[in-house]
Amino acid sequence: MSKLEVLRNPKQRKLLFSAGMSWLFDAMEVGMISFIVAALAKEWSLSPGQVGVLTSINSIGMALGALLAGALADRFGRKAILMWTLLIFTIASGLSALATGFAVLCALRLLAGIGLGGELPVASTLVSESMPTAERGRAVVLLESFWAGGWIVSALIANFVIPEYGWRIAFAIGALPAFYALYLRRAIQDPPRYKNHTKLQKITFREKVATVWSAPHRRTTLMLWILWFTVIFSYYGMFLWLPSVVMAKGFTLVKSFQYVLIMTIAQLPGYFTAAYFIERFGRKFVLVVYLTLTAISAIAFGLATTEATILAAGICLSFFNLGAWGGLYAYSPELYPTSVRSTGVGLATSVGRIGGVLAPFMVGMLVQRAVPISLIFTIFFVTILIGAAAVLFWGRETKGQELAES
């Protein structure tokens, strides 16, 4: 089977690109927040603590969204929940453009987060269940690569729209993907694996959680929860603060946006190399190696002071961190049976989003207390290594294995 067969099969290609575009819009929304808060901090005179609250509240919504959408997708189908989550976050984004104060904006970002957090685990489960075994991991990593596209779009908006027209226009642009939900309604279908498993809808949420924590899945669930927490904690702690951290190192707002755009482009080869290695060497290899190199890059970025070292460390950070994200989304749905697959992934994602709540807030508090950037990034170095160790010692390899039905 060709390594690119997933892109040659018209039906699978259509599914991958349809789900991928919704993923791109999700990433664009998250990415714009990191740029918008840097501009808002100036316009509204926000303290580092308030910036931390604004970025964290989005993650609170994402935790709720992942928990709810995962369970609902097992009951009502992957397609329906994917469309509704897309609509929720795009409408909330459009309303954010009209926010008149900090509290109103925080409330709207909470609502947007619910849609954002719900979409990701549902999309990855849908694609994972719809692809042949030999191409499943690569397909989900390629799905994840659309995340880099969304960040690139958000960085372009930050460079060319926000400085000229302001942050409200950026939020308004984030509302446009609502029209894409109309296309999704006809473009994708629930996977046959889900349709054939009709007894799914008779299982209560409590029974699904009990299954996830039952003896056959307990170690897997613990490993996944640690992995998701450490990855999301480090990602949102580092990447939502990237423009602000670059400014703290002595560069202007516009310059920081340009640097982050360059770093963001490095995400694409990170995904593509991970897509190659994941079917060649396995899921555990990609996760452990890419997370370890992410940790090293985090230390290097924290210590960087010159233009060259900041860019080099930032490029490596984006390359390896987002490659690991691709492995994470490919790996997680493979660890549970069909009846609880979306619930299991949603629970793990929801626990991870707690890290997304804590990290931006923590960075805001530490920056406000003048803690050195190098020390802050040392915290992320240790956190990422804990996630890599959990996979190394507790993870099981799923490369080449059929998805479990029950």
From TrEMBL:
Signal peptide: none annotated. The chain crosses the membrane at residues 21-41, 53-73, 80-104, 110-127, 139-159, 165-184, 222-242, 257-278, 285-304, 310-331, 343-367, 373-394. It is found in: Cell membrane. GO terms for cellular component: plasma membrane. Pfam families: MFS_1. Its main location: membrane. Gene3D superfamilies: MFS general substrate transporter like domains. Keywords: Membrane, Transmembrane, Transmembrane helix, Transport. Residues 15-399 form the Major facilitator superfamily (MFS) profile domain. It is a multi-pass membrane protein. InterPro entries: MFS, MFS_dom, MFS_trans_sf, Sugar_transporter_CS. GO terms for molecular function: carboxylic acid transmembrane transporter activity. This is MFS transporter. The lineage of its organism: Bacteria, Bacillati, Bacillota, Bacilli, Bacillales.
